[in-house]
Write a structure and sequence with these properties.
Helices cover about 20% and strands about 25% of the residues. The protein is an alpha+beta fold. The protein has one domain: Alpha-Beta Plaits. Iron/sulfur cluster (SF4) binds next to helix 1. The site of iron/sulfur cluster (SF4) has 14 residues, from helix 1.
Length: about 80
């Protein structure tokens, strides 16, 4: 089942952990804050829908994010 992924840009401190761990899904925006790569992006740069085979990668980033800025739910 695909996943809805969102980065809370109000919480993100731009430390780069998520895009180091899972560059298939996350990338640095202009200010270093995380955004979703274009391939999976939705209407906003900080949200998207990601295929199930990247669930482990997303989960690693979600749990590693020091401020809990990565939100994941089933799409
Ligand atoms: S791991 Fe969290 S704080 Fe760090 S860049 Fe990603 S979303 Fe932002």
């Amino acid at each position: 089942m695909p996943l809805k992924v969102k980065v809370d840009l109000g919480l993100c401190i731009a430390d780069g952990v998520c895009y180091a761990l899972c560059p298939q899904v996350f990338e640095a925006g202009p200010d270093g804050k995380s955004q979703i790569v274009k391939e999976y992006r939705g209407g906003e740069v900080n949200e998207g829908v990601v295929p199930d085979d990247l669930a482990d990668c997303v989960e690693q980033s979600r749990t590693a994010c020091p401020v809990g800025a990565i939100l994941v739910e089933k799409a």
